[in-house]
Amino acid sequence: MELEASRGKPHPWVVVLISLLAVFLGFQLIGLFAGILLISPFYEGTLVEMMEALARPTNDPDMKLYLYCIQGCGAIIGFIVVPYFILQWIGQSYSTLLRSKFHIQPLVLVTFIAVAFMGVNSIFIEWNEKLRLPEFLSGVEDWARAMEDRLKEMTDFLTRFDSFPQFLIAFVVIAILPGIGEEIVFRGIIQRELIRGTNNIHLSIWLAAAIFSGFHFQFYGFVPRMLLGALFGYLYYWSGSLWLAMLAHFVNNGLMVLAMYFYQQGLIDIDIESTEAVSWSGVLFSAVITSILLYLFKTFYDKQPSASSGEQAA
User: Residue 118: CB partners within 8 Å, gap ≥ 6?
Assistant: First the structure.
């Protein structure tokens, strides 16, 4: 495919590839370096000792706050600062990307859609976690399972809250920042550019969702996260409002973190971290409710005078 500018913009596939590389470097490299610089004055020890502790953070509960700071820096730089320059490069800005009319009804619908979809997605969470690859791919499976175990160990460490202030910091880092930043990148930039490059709405939404899921490097959570990404993508496409995709993302992550905290405090009996699906009747009920709410959401925007889909493709 010839890589030429379209409508005065860089080719959409060039934008997608460079955006992913820039975001990855911003999150994993620049954000990490900035986070280390931020926490180093507060660490009681040498820089070498701090780096050794960060390499094995689960051995020291005191490292949790430092990890929150590093992860927060990575999210801000990788998913908010870097996209600002990408948007400038392609002739966009946050003011145009986030421009949206305010309506109460979609806000309520999106909140309940995100909650209802959790029941639907639970069956895919259980299936994906138990997925086994063919024998000839056993090496790949061992690698993926080892990575999954390391990530789970880190996630368990970061979501064991020793105090309410610690929970609040984690809520910002795990729920608020990803809800904003990841939607800017994967829906606001990647999905829009894919639509521009393919002229195929559904392909673009699902491809952006797959990229979004793959970016998390969790094979045994790939499918349910991809489905979430597709849900956010359709909410964005139908409404033209990135704020609503952010809200759905925030509700999903925020409820997870909140449920973990309540469970640890003994306030609820539901272990949200369990990969066991809800009952089939619960899945069916959730699917029906989610479908009705999505229908109401799409119908609401179909009746609006301006076509949101045209705004995204522009």
Answer: 252, 255, 286
